[in-house]
Amino acid sequence: MHPAILTLEEAILRFGREKRNGQRVVFTNGCFDLLHPGHISSLEQARVLGDILIIGLNSDKSVRQLKGEGRPVLPANERAEILAAMECVDAVVIFDDLTPREVIARLLPDVLVKGGDWAGDKIVGREEVEAAGGQVVSVPVVSGYSTTEILRKIRESAPSSRAGS
Fold first, then answer.
1. pTM for the whole thing?
2. Which own/partner contact pairs does 12-20 have at CB distance under 8 Å and 24+ positions apart?
């Protein structure tokens, strides 16, 4: 397993407020089921906002609950390996809950980043981050990219099975 894949406790020990030495910790989260250019863009934008980028990654169980049967396409450990290998990513923490609220509340990043498709008052963790003196930033979403759309295209282009063939 990639050394940047951490438990929440390991992330707190390494990047907790008292360990930062003036470095700004940025946190973002998502399913990152099939990594596409929209994901890459948002992660690179997030990284520019601080010194350390930590990704909260939805577990397989939470992705299934959020996205439905047939998801995730890739299991959490594989999604985490891909993200951890990215130059802009310093750590990946897999979480089981439907939201990253506990991860955010315990880690208390300096900057919480979500895509601009999330209404500001709907960003989970906003209250915790702002109460601790941090900021919440929305980054523009790159239009034309969606894991759901990629999967739809794959399904539509797959040959259909016919009876008797």
1. 0.86
2. 12/106, 12/107, 14/91, 15/52, 15/54, 15/90, 15/91, 15/107, 16/107, 16/108, 17/108, 17/132, 20/52, 20/110
